[in-house]
Design a protein that fits this description.
2 copies of one chain form a homodimer.
Chain A lengths: L8 E4 L9 H6 L3 E5 L6 H13 L4 E4 L6 H11 L7 E9 L23 H17 L2 E9 L10 E8 L4 E7 L15 E6 L2 E5 L5 E5 L5 E3 L12 H15 L7 H20 L3 E2 L1
Parallel strand pairs in A: 1-2, 2-3, 4-7
Antiparallel strand pairs in A: 4-8, 5-6, 5-12, 6-7, 8-9, 9-10, 10-11
Helix pairs in contact in A: 2-6, 4-6
Pfam families (chains A, B): GFO_IDH_MocA_C3
InterPro entries (chains A, B): Gfo/Idh/MocA_oxidoreduct, GFO_IDH_MocA-like_dom, NAD(P)-bd_dom_sf
Protein backbone atom coordinates (compact mmCIF):
# COMPACT_ATOMS: atom_id res chain seq x y z
CA UNK A 1 0.00 0.00 0.00
CA UNK A 2 1.35 3.41 -0.91
CA UNK A 3 1.75 6.07 1.77
CA UNK A 4 0.59 8.74 -0.63
CA UNK A 5 -2.95 7.37 -1.06
CA UNK A 6 -5.57 9.99 -0.53
CA UNK A 7 -7.50 7.93 2.02
CA UNK A 8 -8.33 8.78 5.63
CA UNK A 9 -8.72 5.15 6.72
CA UNK A 10 -7.60 1.71 5.70
CA UNK A 11 -9.22 -1.68 5.98
CA UNK A 12 -6.75 -4.46 6.87
CA UNK A 13 -8.32 -7.75 5.83
CA UNK A 14 -5.18 -9.71 5.02
CA UNK A 15 -3.67 -12.74 6.77
CA UNK A 16 -3.29 -12.48 10.55
CA UNK A 17 0.51 -12.43 10.36
CA UNK A 18 0.55 -9.21 8.29
CA UNK A 19 -1.38 -6.87 10.58
CA UNK A 20 1.68 -5.64 12.46
CA UNK A 21 2.31 -3.59 9.33
CA UNK A 22 -0.68 -1.55 10.47
CA UNK A 23 1.75 0.46 12.54
CA UNK A 24 3.23 1.97 9.41
CA UNK A 25 -0.15 3.27 8.36
CA UNK A 26 -0.91 4.77 11.76
CA UNK A 27 2.44 6.51 11.49
CA UNK A 28 1.48 8.08 8.16
CA UNK A 29 -1.87 9.28 9.37
CA UNK A 30 -4.40 6.56 8.58
CA UNK A 31 -7.26 5.37 10.72
CA UNK A 32 -7.65 1.60 10.67
CA UNK A 33 -10.34 -1.07 10.68
CA UNK A 34 -8.61 -4.42 11.11
CA UNK A 35 -9.90 -7.93 10.53
CA UNK A 36 -9.67 -10.41 13.40
CA UNK A 37 -7.50 -12.17 14.48
CA UNK A 38 -5.40 -9.05 14.93
CA UNK A 39 -2.10 -10.89 15.32
CA UNK A 40 -0.79 -14.36 16.16
CA UNK A 41 -0.25 -13.43 19.83
CA UNK A 42 -1.94 -11.27 22.45
CA UNK A 43 1.30 -9.29 22.89
CA UNK A 44 1.36 -8.36 19.21
CA UNK A 45 -2.34 -7.45 19.28
CA UNK A 46 -1.68 -5.14 22.20
CA UNK A 47 1.25 -3.59 20.32
CA UNK A 48 -0.97 -2.85 17.32
CA UNK A 49 -3.43 -1.17 19.65
CA UNK A 50 -0.74 0.81 21.51
CA UNK A 51 0.64 2.06 18.21
CA UNK A 52 -2.80 3.30 17.22
CA UNK A 53 -3.26 5.06 20.55
CA UNK A 54 0.16 6.70 20.30
CA UNK A 55 -0.60 7.93 16.78
CA UNK A 56 -3.99 9.29 17.97
CA UNK A 57 -5.67 7.40 15.17
CA UNK A 58 -9.00 5.62 15.34
CA UNK A 59 -9.01 1.82 15.38
CA UNK A 60 -11.88 -0.63 15.00
CA UNK A 61 -11.72 -4.42 14.95
CA UNK A 62 -13.75 -6.07 12.23
CA UNK A 63 -15.58 -8.40 14.65
CA UNK A 64 -18.76 -8.94 12.67
CA UNK A 65 -20.60 -11.73 14.55
CA UNK A 66 -22.05 -9.36 17.13
CA UNK A 67 -23.50 -7.40 14.20
CA UNK A 68 -25.52 -10.40 13.01
CA UNK A 69 -29.19 -9.40 13.09
CA UNK A 70 -30.17 -12.16 15.57
CA UNK A 71 -27.57 -11.02 18.10
CA UNK A 72 -28.75 -7.41 17.80
CA UNK A 73 -32.35 -8.58 18.38
CA UNK A 74 -31.41 -10.83 21.32
CA UNK A 75 -29.51 -7.96 22.98
CA UNK A 76 -32.50 -5.66 22.47
CA UNK A 77 -34.84 -8.24 24.05
CA UNK A 78 -32.55 -8.85 27.04
CA UNK A 79 -32.28 -5.10 27.62
CA UNK A 80 -36.07 -4.80 27.36
CA UNK A 81 -36.31 -7.28 30.24
CA UNK A 82 -38.13 -10.14 28.48
CA UNK A 83 -36.02 -12.71 30.39
CA UNK A 84 -36.51 -10.99 33.76
CA UNK A 85 -34.03 -9.11 35.89
CA UNK A 86 -31.44 -11.87 36.12
CA UNK A 87 -29.61 -13.60 33.29
CA UNK A 88 -28.87 -17.26 34.13
CA UNK A 89 -27.04 -18.84 31.22
CA UNK A 90 -26.00 -18.19 27.63
CA UNK A 91 -25.32 -21.44 25.77
CA UNK A 92 -23.71 -21.32 22.35
CA UNK A 93 -23.38 -24.58 20.45
CA UNK A 94 -21.54 -24.66 17.11
CA UNK A 95 -21.18 -27.60 14.72
CA UNK A 96 -19.84 -26.74 11.27
CA UNK A 97 -18.88 -30.24 10.08
CA UNK A 98 -16.30 -28.86 7.64
CA UNK A 99 -13.33 -30.47 9.34
CA UNK A 100 -13.64 -34.26 9.13
CA UNK A 101 -11.83 -36.68 6.84
CA UNK A 102 -8.41 -36.64 5.19
CA UNK A 103 -9.17 -33.53 3.07
CA UNK A 104 -10.52 -31.41 5.93
CA UNK A 105 -10.56 -27.66 5.22
CA UNK A 106 -8.63 -28.01 1.93
CA UNK A 107 -11.47 -26.64 -0.18
CA UNK A 108 -12.17 -23.36 1.59
CA UNK A 109 -9.41 -22.65 4.09
CA UNK A 110 -6.43 -25.02 3.67
CA UNK A 111 -4.27 -22.99 6.09
CA UNK A 112 -6.63 -24.17 8.87
CA UNK A 113 -4.79 -27.50 8.83
CA UNK A 114 -1.48 -26.10 10.05
CA UNK A 115 -2.67 -23.46 12.52
CA UNK A 116 -1.41 -24.44 16.01
CA UNK A 117 -4.54 -22.83 17.49
CA UNK A 118 -7.62 -23.37 15.37
CA UNK A 119 -11.13 -23.58 16.78
CA UNK A 120 -11.10 -20.98 19.55
CA UNK A 121 -8.52 -18.68 17.95
CA UNK A 122 -10.20 -18.57 14.58
CA UNK A 123 -13.90 -19.12 15.25
CA UNK A 124 -14.53 -19.31 19.00
CA UNK A 125 -13.28 -15.74 19.45
CA UNK A 126 -16.45 -14.62 17.65
CA UNK A 127 -18.58 -16.33 20.27
CA UNK A 128 -16.48 -15.00 23.13
CA UNK A 129 -17.16 -11.53 21.75
CA UNK A 130 -20.87 -12.27 21.27
CA UNK A 131 -21.16 -13.58 24.82
CA UNK A 132 -19.50 -10.42 26.16
CA UNK A 133 -21.87 -8.36 23.99
CA UNK A 134 -24.88 -10.19 25.47
CA UNK A 135 -23.73 -11.02 29.00
CA UNK A 136 -21.17 -8.38 29.96
CA UNK A 137 -17.66 -8.87 31.27
CA UNK A 138 -16.21 -12.31 31.96
CA UNK A 139 -14.64 -13.08 35.35
CA UNK A 140 -13.50 -16.73 35.06
CA UNK A 141 -12.85 -19.27 32.30
CA UNK A 142 -12.58 -23.06 32.26
CA UNK A 143 -11.87 -24.78 28.94
CA UNK A 144 -11.21 -28.21 27.51
CA UNK A 145 -9.86 -28.66 23.98
CA UNK A 146 -9.34 -31.62 21.68
CA UNK A 147 -8.09 -32.43 18.19
CA UNK A 148 -10.64 -34.88 16.79
CA UNK A 149 -9.23 -35.01 13.25
CA UNK A 150 -5.63 -36.30 13.29
CA UNK A 151 -4.72 -34.58 9.97
CA UNK A 152 -4.75 -31.10 11.52
CA UNK A 153 -2.38 -29.38 13.97
CA UNK A 154 -4.69 -27.34 16.21
CA UNK A 155 -7.84 -28.03 18.20
CA UNK A 156 -11.10 -28.68 16.34
CA UNK A 157 -13.31 -29.14 19.42
CA UNK A 158 -13.58 -27.11 22.59
CA UNK A 159 -15.93 -26.64 25.49
CA UNK A 160 -15.61 -23.39 27.42
CA UNK A 161 -17.42 -22.53 30.66
CA UNK A 162 -17.49 -18.84 31.62
CA UNK A 163 -18.58 -16.88 34.65
CA UNK A 164 -19.82 -13.39 33.95
CA UNK A 165 -19.28 -10.64 36.52
CA UNK A 166 -23.09 -10.43 36.76
CA UNK A 167 -23.34 -13.99 38.12
CA UNK A 168 -24.60 -15.42 34.84
CA UNK A 169 -22.75 -18.31 33.21
CA UNK A 170 -21.75 -18.96 29.63
CA UNK A 171 -21.13 -22.17 27.70
CA UNK A 172 -19.39 -22.30 24.31
CA UNK A 173 -19.53 -25.81 22.87
CA UNK A 174 -17.75 -25.80 19.52
CA UNK A 175 -16.76 -28.62 17.20
CA UNK A 176 -15.84 -28.35 13.52
CA UNK A 177 -15.62 -32.12 12.98
CA UNK A 178 -19.19 -33.16 13.72
CA UNK A 179 -22.12 -31.79 11.78
CA UNK A 180 -25.24 -29.74 12.40
CA UNK A 181 -28.62 -31.04 11.22
CA UNK A 182 -29.12 -28.13 8.84
CA UNK A 183 -28.04 -27.60 5.22
CA UNK A 184 -26.37 -24.24 5.97
CA UNK A 185 -24.51 -24.32 9.29
CA UNK A 186 -22.79 -21.05 8.34
CA UNK A 187 -25.93 -18.90 8.44
CA UNK A 188 -26.07 -18.48 12.24
CA UNK A 189 -22.97 -20.68 12.87
CA UNK A 190 -24.80 -22.43 15.68
CA UNK A 191 -27.67 -22.48 18.11
CA UNK A 192 -27.93 -20.14 21.08
CA UNK A 193 -30.09 -20.49 24.19
CA UNK A 194 -30.35 -17.58 26.63
CA UNK A 195 -32.05 -18.30 29.95
CA UNK A 196 -33.04 -15.85 32.63
CA UNK A 197 -35.17 -15.55 35.73
CA UNK A 198 -38.31 -15.14 33.63
CA UNK A 199 -37.83 -17.36 30.60
CA UNK A 200 -35.84 -18.51 27.61
CA UNK A 201 -34.80 -17.18 24.20
CA UNK A 202 -33.71 -19.69 21.55
CA UNK A 203 -31.95 -19.06 18.24
CA UNK A 204 -32.14 -21.85 15.64
CA UNK A 205 -29.77 -22.60 12.77
CA UNK A 206 -32.19 -21.04 10.27
CA UNK A 207 -32.28 -17.75 12.19
CA UNK A 208 -35.64 -18.41 13.84
CA UNK A 209 -35.79 -16.74 17.24
CA UNK A 210 -38.30 -17.79 19.92
CA UNK A 211 -39.27 -16.52 23.34
CA UNK A 212 -40.73 -18.75 26.05
CA UNK A 213 -41.68 -16.80 29.18
CA UNK A 214 -41.89 -19.08 32.26
CA UNK A 215 -45.15 -21.00 32.30
CA UNK A 216 -46.09 -20.00 28.75
CA UNK A 217 -45.87 -21.52 25.29
CA UNK A 218 -42.81 -20.85 23.15
CA UNK A 219 -43.59 -18.25 20.46
CA UNK A 220 -41.66 -16.89 17.52
CA UNK A 221 -40.11 -13.44 17.73
CA UNK A 222 -40.32 -11.73 14.35
CA UNK A 223 -37.35 -9.63 13.27
CA UNK A 224 -35.61 -8.76 10.00
CA UNK A 225 -32.95 -11.21 8.83
CA UNK A 226 -32.11 -12.44 5.36
CA UNK A 227 -29.73 -14.75 3.49
CA UNK A 228 -27.84 -11.89 1.98
CA UNK A 229 -24.09 -11.42 2.20
CA UNK A 230 -22.28 -13.29 4.96
CA UNK A 231 -24.20 -14.59 8.00
CA UNK A 232 -27.20 -12.27 7.90
CA UNK A 233 -25.36 -9.46 6.09
CA UNK A 234 -23.33 -8.68 9.22
CA UNK A 235 -20.36 -7.41 7.19
CA UNK A 236 -22.61 -4.72 5.70
CA UNK A 237 -23.86 -3.84 9.19
CA UNK A 238 -20.42 -3.50 10.76
CA UNK A 239 -19.26 -1.30 7.89
CA UNK A 240 -22.34 0.85 8.30
CA UNK A 241 -21.47 1.14 12.01
CA UNK A 242 -17.89 2.08 11.12
CA UNK A 243 -18.97 4.83 8.76
CA UNK A 244 -21.54 6.28 11.14
CA UNK A 245 -19.12 6.30 14.09
CA UNK A 246 -16.29 7.60 11.92
CA UNK A 247 -18.35 10.49 10.64
CA UNK A 248 -19.97 11.37 13.97
CA UNK A 249 -16.86 10.83 16.08
CA UNK A 250 -18.70 8.48 18.45
CA UNK A 251 -16.85 5.39 19.79
CA UNK A 252 -16.58 2.21 17.75
CA UNK A 253 -18.39 -0.64 19.49
CA UNK A 254 -15.51 -2.99 18.73
CA UNK A 255 -12.68 -0.56 19.41
CA UNK A 256 -9.27 -1.69 20.57
CA UNK A 257 -9.93 -1.35 24.30
CA UNK A 258 -13.07 -3.41 24.04
CA UNK A 259 -11.65 -6.10 21.79
CA UNK A 260 -8.60 -6.69 23.94
CA UNK A 261 -11.04 -7.89 26.63
CA UNK A 262 -12.32 -10.58 24.24
CA UNK A 263 -8.71 -11.50 23.45
CA UNK A 264 -7.92 -11.81 27.17
CA UNK A 265 -10.78 -14.32 27.48
CA UNK A 266 -9.40 -16.20 24.48
CA UNK A 267 -5.94 -16.41 26.09
CA UNK A 268 -7.57 -17.59 29.31
CA UNK A 269 -9.23 -20.43 27.34
CA UNK A 270 -5.87 -21.71 26.10
CA UNK A 271 -4.27 -21.25 29.54
CA UNK A 272 -7.11 -23.15 31.19
CA UNK A 273 -7.01 -26.01 28.70
CA UNK A 274 -3.23 -26.33 29.02
CA UNK A 275 -3.20 -26.20 32.82
CA UNK A 276 -6.52 -27.97 33.46
CA UNK A 277 -7.80 -25.34 35.84
CA UNK A 278 -10.05 -22.30 36.13
CA UNK A 279 -8.43 -19.03 35.05
CA UNK A 280 -9.52 -15.78 36.71
CA UNK A 281 -9.56 -12.59 34.67
CA UNK B 1 -41.73 -54.92 57.72
CA UNK B 2 -42.00 -58.25 59.53
CA UNK B 3 -39.07 -60.64 59.52
CA UNK B 4 -41.38 -63.59 59.17
CA UNK B 5 -42.70 -62.64 55.74
CA UNK B 6 -42.51 -65.49 53.29
CA UNK B 7 -40.65 -63.48 50.65
CA UNK B 8 -37.26 -64.15 49.07
CA UNK B 9 -36.58 -60.52 48.13
CA UNK B 10 -37.65 -57.07 49.16
CA UNK B 11 -38.06 -53.85 47.25
CA UNK B 12 -36.95 -50.78 49.22
CA UNK B 13 -38.62 -47.76 47.66
CA UNK B 14 -38.93 -45.57 50.73
CA UNK B 15 -37.20 -42.30 51.56
CA UNK B 16 -33.44 -42.23 51.14
CA UNK B 17 -32.79 -41.91 54.87
CA UNK B 18 -34.46 -45.24 55.64
CA UNK B 19 -32.47 -47.61 53.45
CA UNK B 20 -29.87 -48.38 56.08
CA UNK B 21 -32.60 -50.62 57.53
CA UNK B 22 -31.88 -52.85 54.57
CA UNK B 23 -29.18 -54.44 56.68
CA UNK B 24 -31.79 -56.03 58.91
CA UNK B 25 -33.40 -57.69 55.94
CA UNK B 26 -30.14 -59.03 54.57
CA UNK B 27 -29.53 -60.46 58.03
CA UNK B 28 -32.81 -62.36 57.96
CA UNK B 29 -32.17 -63.77 54.52
CA UNK B 30 -33.74 -61.38 52.04
CA UNK B 31 -32.38 -60.31 48.69
CA UNK B 32 -32.85 -56.60 48.02
CA UNK B 33 -33.69 -54.24 45.19
CA UNK B 34 -33.21 -50.70 46.49
CA UNK B 35 -34.40 -47.39 45.09
CA UNK B 36 -31.80 -44.69 44.49
CA UNK B 37 -30.46 -42.63 46.20
CA UNK B 38 -29.27 -45.50 48.40
CA UNK B 39 -28.38 -43.31 51.37
CA UNK B 40 -27.60 -39.69 52.17
CA UNK B 41 -23.82 -40.26 51.97
CA UNK B 42 -21.45 -42.37 49.91
CA UNK B 43 -20.13 -43.98 53.12
CA UNK B 44 -23.61 -45.20 54.06
CA UNK B 45 -24.23 -46.44 50.53
CA UNK B 46 -21.02 -48.45 50.70
CA UNK B 47 -22.07 -49.85 54.09
CA UNK B 48 -25.41 -51.04 52.67
CA UNK B 49 -23.51 -52.75 49.88
CA UNK B 50 -20.93 -54.31 52.23
CA UNK B 51 -23.72 -55.67 54.41
CA UNK B 52 -25.30 -57.32 51.39
CA UNK B 53 -21.98 -58.85 50.32
CA UNK B 54 -21.35 -60.16 53.87
CA UNK B 55 -24.81 -61.72 54.01
CA UNK B 56 -24.25 -63.32 50.58
CA UNK B 57 -27.52 -61.82 49.40
CA UNK B 58 -28.23 -60.36 45.99
CA UNK B 59 -28.55 -56.60 45.67
CA UNK B 60 -29.78 -54.49 42.76
CA UNK B 61 -30.15 -50.71 42.63
CA UNK B 62 -33.40 -49.50 41.13
CA UNK B 63 -31.66 -47.18 38.63
CA UNK B 64 -34.30 -47.11 35.93
CA UNK B 65 -33.14 -44.38 33.51
CA UNK B 66 -30.71 -46.69 31.71
CA UNK B 67 -33.67 -49.00 31.11
CA UNK B 68 -35.56 -46.32 29.17
CA UNK B 69 -36.16 -47.66 25.66
CA UNK B 70 -34.24 -44.81 23.94
CA UNK B 71 -31.12 -45.49 26.00
CA UNK B 72 -31.28 -49.22 25.20
CA UNK B 73 -31.60 -48.36 21.49
CA UNK B 74 -28.76 -45.80 21.59
CA UNK B 75 -26.48 -48.33 23.28
CA UNK B 76 -27.37 -50.95 20.67
CA UNK B 77 -26.60 -48.49 17.84
CA UNK B 78 -23.25 -47.43 19.36
CA UNK B 79 -22.28 -51.08 19.79
CA UNK B 80 -23.31 -51.77 16.18
CA UNK B 81 -20.81 -49.08 15.13
CA UNK B 82 -23.19 -46.59 13.50
CA UNK B 83 -21.12 -43.68 14.93
CA UNK B 84 -17.79 -45.17 13.85
CA UNK B 85 -15.01 -46.63 15.93
CA UNK B 86 -14.49 -43.61 18.17
CA UNK B 87 -17.02 -41.94 20.46
CA UNK B 88 -16.41 -38.16 20.69
CA UNK B 89 -19.00 -36.65 22.98
CA UNK B 90 -22.22 -37.47 24.84
CA UNK B 91 -24.19 -34.32 25.66
CA UNK B 92 -27.16 -34.56 28.00
CA UNK B 93 -29.25 -31.44 28.47
CA UNK B 94 -32.11 -31.44 31.01
CA UNK B 95 -34.65 -28.70 31.63
CA UNK B 96 -37.64 -29.69 33.78
CA UNK B 97 -38.93 -26.20 34.69
CA UNK B 98 -40.62 -27.51 37.84
CA UNK B 99 -38.49 -25.49 40.23
CA UNK B 100 -39.14 -21.79 39.68
CA UNK B 101 -41.22 -19.40 41.75
CA UNK B 102 -42.10 -19.24 45.45
CA UNK B 103 -44.01 -22.56 45.42
CA UNK B 104 -41.31 -24.57 43.64
CA UNK B 105 -41.65 -28.36 44.06
CA UNK B 106 -44.45 -28.07 46.63
CA UNK B 107 -46.98 -29.89 44.45
CA UNK B 108 -45.09 -33.06 43.61
CA UNK B 109 -41.99 -33.30 45.80
CA UNK B 110 -41.99 -30.68 48.61
CA UNK B 111 -38.98 -32.30 50.33
CA UNK B 112 -36.90 -31.13 47.34
CA UNK B 113 -36.87 -27.65 48.88
CA UNK B 114 -34.85 -28.61 51.92
CA UNK B 115 -32.45 -31.16 50.44
CA UNK B 116 -28.90 -29.79 50.82
CA UNK B 117 -27.97 -31.56 47.58
CA UNK B 118 -30.72 -31.50 45.00
CA UNK B 119 -30.12 -31.52 41.27
CA UNK B 120 -27.16 -33.87 40.89
CA UNK B 121 -27.94 -36.04 43.96
CA UNK B 122 -31.58 -36.59 43.06
CA UNK B 123 -31.76 -36.34 39.26
CA UNK B 124 -28.26 -35.91 37.83
CA UNK B 125 -27.20 -39.30 39.22
CA UNK B 126 -29.53 -40.86 36.63
CA UNK B 127 -27.60 -39.17 33.83
CA UNK B 128 -24.25 -40.06 35.34
CA UNK B 129 -25.38 -43.67 35.27
CA UNK B 130 -26.73 -43.35 31.71
CA UNK B 131 -23.46 -41.79 30.53
CA UNK B 132 -21.50 -44.65 32.12
CA UNK B 133 -23.90 -47.10 30.44
CA UNK B 134 -23.29 -45.48 27.04
CA UNK B 135 -19.69 -44.26 27.32
CA UNK B 136 -17.96 -46.54 29.80
CA UNK B 137 -15.99 -45.60 32.89
CA UNK B 138 -15.34 -42.00 33.87
CA UNK B 139 -11.79 -40.82 34.58
CA UNK B 140 -12.18 -37.10 35.46
CA UNK B 141 -14.97 -34.74 36.51
CA UNK B 142 -15.32 -30.96 36.48
CA UNK B 143 -18.58 -29.45 37.78
CA UNK B 144 -20.17 -26.08 38.46
CA UNK B 145 -23.36 -25.80 40.52
CA UNK B 146 -25.78 -22.98 41.29
CA UNK B 147 -28.98 -22.35 43.21
CA UNK B 148 -31.10 -20.27 40.86
CA UNK B 149 -34.26 -20.27 43.00
CA UNK B 150 -33.60 -18.65 46.39
CA UNK B 151 -36.47 -20.52 48.13
CA UNK B 152 -34.62 -23.87 48.04
CA UNK B 153 -31.56 -25.14 49.94
CA UNK B 154 -29.68 -27.21 47.35
CA UNK B 155 -28.48 -26.67 43.81
CA UNK B 156 -31.04 -26.50 41.00
CA UNK B 157 -28.56 -26.01 38.13
CA UNK B 158 -25.33 -27.81 37.33
CA UNK B 159 -22.98 -28.28 34.46
CA UNK B 160 -20.71 -31.31 34.58
CA UNK B 161 -17.86 -32.09 32.17
CA UNK B 162 -16.59 -35.68 32.19
CA UNK B 163 -13.68 -37.48 30.60
CA UNK B 164 -14.28 -41.14 29.83
CA UNK B 165 -11.39 -43.61 30.02
CA UNK B 166 -11.96 -44.17 26.28
CA UNK B 167 -11.04 -40.54 25.46
CA UNK B 168 -14.64 -39.52 24.83
CA UNK B 169 -16.11 -36.59 26.76
CA UNK B 170 -19.44 -36.13 28.46
CA UNK B 171 -21.49 -33.04 29.24
CA UNK B 172 -24.42 -33.02 31.67
CA UNK B 173 -26.20 -29.66 31.59
CA UNK B 174 -29.08 -29.76 34.06
CA UNK B 175 -31.41 -27.05 35.30
CA UNK B 176 -34.76 -27.53 37.05
CA UNK B 177 -35.61 -23.80 37.07
CA UNK B 178 -35.75 -23.06 33.36
CA UNK B 179 -38.12 -24.85 31.05
CA UNK B 180 -37.98 -27.14 28.04
CA UNK B 181 -39.98 -26.29 24.92
CA UNK B 182 -42.11 -29.40 25.18
CA UNK B 183 -45.34 -30.11 27.07
CA UNK B 184 -43.95 -33.22 28.79
CA UNK B 185 -40.33 -32.70 29.87
CA UNK B 186 -40.58 -35.86 32.01
CA UNK B 187 -40.91 -38.28 29.11
CA UNK B 188 -37.21 -38.42 28.17
CA UNK B 189 -36.15 -35.87 30.87
CA UNK B 190 -33.99 -34.09 28.32
CA UNK B 191 -32.24 -34.15 24.99
CA UNK B 192 -29.17 -36.24 24.27
CA UNK B 193 -26.65 -35.87 21.44
CA UNK B 194 -24.05 -38.59 20.87
CA UNK B 195 -21.25 -37.78 18.44
CA UNK B 196 -18.61 -40.09 17.07
CA UNK B 197 -16.02 -40.37 14.35
CA UNK B 198 -18.69 -41.25 11.80
CA UNK B 199 -21.76 -39.24 12.75
CA UNK B 200 -24.35 -38.13 15.25
CA UNK B 201 -27.31 -39.62 17.12
CA UNK B 202 -29.91 -37.23 18.57
CA UNK B 203 -32.68 -37.94 21.07
CA UNK B 204 -35.52 -35.39 21.26
CA UNK B 205 -37.89 -34.66 24.13
CA UNK B 206 -40.68 -36.63 22.45
CA UNK B 207 -38.50 -39.75 22.19
CA UNK B 208 -37.67 -39.31 18.51
CA UNK B 209 -34.24 -40.70 17.74
CA UNK B 210 -32.29 -39.69 14.63
CA UNK B 211 -29.04 -40.78 13.03
CA UNK B 212 -26.94 -38.50 10.83
CA UNK B 213 -23.90 -40.28 9.37
CA UNK B 214 -21.18 -37.80 8.31
CA UNK B 215 -22.03 -36.22 4.98
CA UNK B 216 -25.58 -37.58 4.93
CA UNK B 217 -29.05 -36.31 5.79
CA UNK B 218 -30.41 -36.84 9.29
CA UNK B 219 -32.92 -39.72 9.33
CA UNK B 220 -35.24 -41.10 11.97
CA UNK B 221 -34.37 -44.37 13.70
CA UNK B 222 -37.53 -46.35 14.38
CA UNK B 223 -37.74 -48.23 17.67
CA UNK B 224 -40.46 -49.18 20.15
CA UNK B 225 -41.28 -46.58 22.80
CA UNK B 226 -44.61 -45.55 24.30
CA UNK B 227 -46.15 -43.17 26.82
CA UNK B 228 -46.92 -45.95 29.24
CA UNK B 229 -45.87 -46.03 32.86
CA UNK B 230 -42.96 -43.78 33.87
CA UNK B 231 -40.57 -42.42 31.23
CA UNK B 232 -41.05 -45.03 28.52
CA UNK B 233 -42.14 -47.77 30.93
CA UNK B 234 -38.60 -48.10 32.28
CA UNK B 235 -39.82 -49.24 35.71
CA UNK B 236 -41.47 -52.24 34.08
CA UNK B 237 -38.26 -52.95 32.16
CA UNK B 238 -35.99 -52.83 35.18
CA UNK B 239 -38.30 -55.13 37.13
CA UNK B 240 -38.34 -57.53 34.22
CA UNK B 241 -34.54 -57.44 34.26
CA UNK B 242 -34.55 -58.08 38.01
CA UNK B 243 -36.81 -61.12 37.72
CA UNK B 244 -34.89 -62.60 34.80
CA UNK B 245 -31.52 -62.15 36.51
CA UNK B 246 -32.90 -63.31 39.85
CA UNK B 247 -34.29 -66.51 38.36
CA UNK B 248 -31.34 -67.28 36.12
CA UNK B 249 -28.67 -66.27 38.61
CA UNK B 250 -26.98 -63.94 36.11
CA UNK B 251 -25.57 -60.59 37.35
CA UNK B 252 -27.81 -57.56 37.82
CA UNK B 253 -26.79 -54.79 35.45
CA UNK B 254 -27.14 -52.21 38.23
CA UNK B 255 -25.64 -54.30 41.00
CA UNK B 256 -23.89 -52.74 43.97
CA UNK B 257 -20.38 -52.86 42.53
CA UNK B 258 -21.49 -51.14 39.37
CA UNK B 259 -23.64 -48.51 41.05
CA UNK B 260 -20.96 -47.46 43.49
CA UNK B 261 -19.00 -46.30 40.42
CA UNK B 262 -21.84 -43.95 39.50
CA UNK B 263 -21.94 -42.73 43.10
CA UNK B 264 -18.19 -42.06 43.03
CA UNK B 265 -18.73 -39.83 39.98
CA UNK B 266 -21.54 -38.06 41.85
CA UNK B 267 -19.27 -37.37 44.82
CA UNK B 268 -16.58 -36.11 42.44
CA UNK B 269 -19.13 -33.61 41.04
CA UNK B 270 -19.75 -32.12 44.48
CA UNK B 271 -16.02 -32.15 45.31
CA UNK B 272 -15.22 -30.41 42.03
CA UNK B 273 -17.91 -27.76 42.45
CA UNK B 274 -16.81 -27.04 46.04
CA UNK B 275 -13.11 -26.87 45.23
CA UNK B 276 -13.36 -25.38 41.71
CA UNK B 277 -11.06 -27.93 40.16
CA UNK B 278 -10.94 -31.13 38.14
CA UNK B 279 -11.34 -34.33 40.22
CA UNK B 280 -9.63 -37.52 39.05
CA UNK B 281 -11.30 -40.85 39.72
Amino acid sequence: MKDGWNARWLRLYSHVGTHMDAQKHFDVGKHITCQKPLAPTLAESKEIHRTCVRAQKRFMVHENFRFQPWHRKIKELIQAGVLGDRLHTITQRMRTGDGYGPDAYLGRQPYFRTMPRLLMFETGIHFIDVLRFLGGEVSTVFAKMRTLNPVIAGEDAAIVLLDFASGAQGIIDGNRYNEANHPDPRYTFGTTVIEGSNGTLRLSLDGTLTLQPLGEQEREVKYAHARRGFAGDCVYSIQQHFLEAFQSGSPFETNGDDYLKSLAVLEACYDSAANKQIVKL
